[in-house]
């Protein structure tokens, strides 16, 4: 039933000139669940997320959030829907010139007009939730390791207690131990704020840790969707090749000959 869906995507299409990136994507994100989308490099995962976030206009198709069509929605109304979203970008995307606490509180202060003192208190609480001491709040992003920056990004993503959180390759560039710490924090934080989560990743380990459900995108379409625990027995040769990381199989990587 569509009321059980937080996000419902149907027939989403997007091309750049002759490069057809999304060719009729259908995706269901059930309310309160964590869906992880996998797919090779350049298969359109980021383009799909950008369309859902309203950062990119699709050529065709429908995106419903809480049963409300957002494609073609007037900018003002769309902004209100965007407030339901939190986002952890690849590489954390922190503002270098702002101390850590202000990075976390940015959306609260500039987006919601919260007083700085109140926003700082919330920011320090969220930093503590991701295992960072209050002293870290006064440091600048350049003074932090990559893993700490990811934690700060996560604290920022949950600062406004969003209904939906997007995770863009949350473990890319981290060592396996820090990747696991971030995976566990994602699960805890998503639970803590009771959010629905949509992630994109190449990292199969991360998928198994953070996903209730999984989907695979290939050649502009979702070619498999199911419970994350079933991904090893998908019966789909494309999914199998990706999951096992095999060079041989139906997926052909574009290789340029010089
Ligand atoms: N603004 C844009 N203008 C033109 N082409 C674009 C634009 N954004 C994305 N593309 C193209 O869309 C395709 C898919 O890109 P996208 O970034 O969504 O891939 P991805 O699956 O997220 O890849 P990766 O896993 O490597 O991040 C690529 O061929 C890319 O060149």
UniProtKB/TrEMBL annotation:
Molecular function per GO: ATP binding
Pfam families: ABC_tran
SMART domains: AAA
UniProt keyword list: ATP-binding, Nucleotide-binding, Transport
UniProt xrefs under InterPro entries: AAA+_ATPase, ABC_transporter-like_ATP-bd, ABC_transporter-like_CS, P-loop_NTPase
Gene3D superfamilies named among the record's database cross-references: P-loop containing nucleotide triphosphate hydrolases (3.40.50.300)
Domain ABC transporter: 7-243
Superkingdom of the organism of origin: Bacteria
Protein name listed in UniProt: ABC transporter ATP-binding protein
